[in-house]
């Protein structure tokens, strides 16, 4: 038994010495490497922060890149849509929309006049943008009556978005002009899509055989009032006094407030039939409207041939030429004003 106890005591001592040495070694090791561990932990902490910052920067850059890409795509889409859905809108970005002269030109025509509309889109769509002005050219006619019109006109609207269909039966001198002017305040009422008032400072009614030079039109309007204005070519032809009779139906223009008056007043409603330009002048006379009048003669005139008291030779100050009843007269007029001067040279075509 004593021998056993001795061996046990020796074993216990050995175990104690073994574990004591290991604990001492571990203690020494921990003391020896604790500073390095702290450095490692601190270094790891800052490295993680660095990675987070780097990831954030990359995320911002990537997000900015995506936003830039979306903006570029959006701009491209907007440009595409503007050329597609608002084909005859001639704009200038030099001024804000609040300071621009805004003009609506309504060309009264017929639903079946597809080729005429396509031709006029070329005529007005190729005129250079006018600085400080927004000009919308729309084709105006009454309700569609044929199945082919419902398809073809709908396709035009989808492609060009430049058509106004009035709620009326097609006519020339039985109220179509009244329906046109009286409908505009409702059609272009102030909304998110049309935030400015008035939506147009001036509204023009024009024939589809009239060629209007937009730049000259805008320049003639700049010094004029934007309220209670009546503008055009005075009839009868020899007259130069805009307060005596009325303006020719080739193309006359009024300020927006007159369109609002036509919509609300009982005077036009009771007098719809007759030569539309003459009747229009009588509305203004009876309603004591249009205290501001502008005679654009002889910047507006009928085509020089055949010569009459209403014709004038083509000249650079022209605003509008009327009675272009055939292609020969159109080509002669367009050649005079050199409308193809901006055609760029290309290997794709050769035009002598």
From TrEMBL:
Signal peptide: none annotated. It is a single-pass type II membrane protein. Its cofactor is Mn(2+). It is found in: Golgi apparatus membrane. It holds the Pfam family Galactosyl_T. GO terms for cellular component: Golgi membrane. Its main location: Golgi. Its EC number is 2.4.1.-. The chain crosses the membrane at residues 40-57. InterPro entries: Glyco_trans_31. PANTHER family: BETA-1,3-GALACTOSYLTRANSFERASE PVG3, BETA-1,3-N-ACETYLGLUCOSAMINYLTRANSFERASE. This is Hexosyltransferase. It comes from Anisodus tanguticus.
């Amino acid at each position: 038994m004593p021998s056993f106890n001795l061996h046990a005591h020796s074993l216990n001592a050995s175990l104690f010495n073994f574990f004591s040495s290991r604990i001492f070694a571990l203690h020494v090791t921990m003391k020896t490497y604790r500073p390095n561990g702290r450095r490692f932990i601190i270094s790891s902490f800052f490295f993680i922060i660095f990675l987070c910052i780097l990831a954030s920067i990359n995320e911002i850059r990537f997000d900015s890149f995506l936003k830039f890409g979306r903006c570029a795509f959006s701009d491209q889409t907007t440009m595409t849509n503007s050329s597609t859905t608002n084909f005859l809108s001639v704009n200038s970005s030099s001024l804000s929309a609040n300071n621009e002269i805004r003009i609506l030109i309504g060309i009264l025509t017929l639903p079946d006049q597809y080729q005429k509309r396509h031709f006029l889109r070329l005529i007005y769509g190729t005129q250079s943008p006018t600085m400080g002005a927004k000009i919308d050219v729309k084709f105006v006619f009454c309700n569609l009556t044929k199945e082919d019109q419902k398809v073809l006109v709908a396709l035009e609207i989808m492609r060009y978005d430049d058509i106004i269909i009035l709620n009326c039966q097609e006519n020339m001198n039985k109220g179509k002009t009244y329906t046109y002017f009286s409908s505009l305040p409702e059609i272009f009422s102030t909304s998110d899509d049309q935030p400015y008032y008035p939506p147009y400072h001036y509204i023009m009614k024009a024939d589809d055989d009239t060629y209007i030079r937009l730049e000259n039109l805008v320049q003639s309007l700049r010094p004029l009032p934007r309220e209670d204005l009546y503008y055009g070519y005075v009839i009868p032809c020899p007259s130069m006094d805009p307060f005596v009779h009325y303006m020719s139906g080739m193309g006359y223009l009024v300020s927006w407030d007159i369109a609002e008056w036509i919509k609300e007043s009982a005077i036009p409603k009771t007098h719809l039939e007759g030569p539309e330009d003459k009747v229009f002048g009588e509305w203004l006379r009876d309603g004591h409207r249009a205290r501001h009048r502008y005679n654009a003669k002889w910047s507006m005139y009928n085509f020089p041939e055949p010569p009459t008291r209403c014709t004038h030779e083509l000249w650079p100050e022209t605003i509008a030429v009327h009675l272009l009843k055939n292609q020969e007269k159109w080509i002669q007029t367009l050649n005079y004003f050199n409308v193809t001067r901006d055609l760029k040279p290309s290997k794709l075509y050769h035009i002598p």
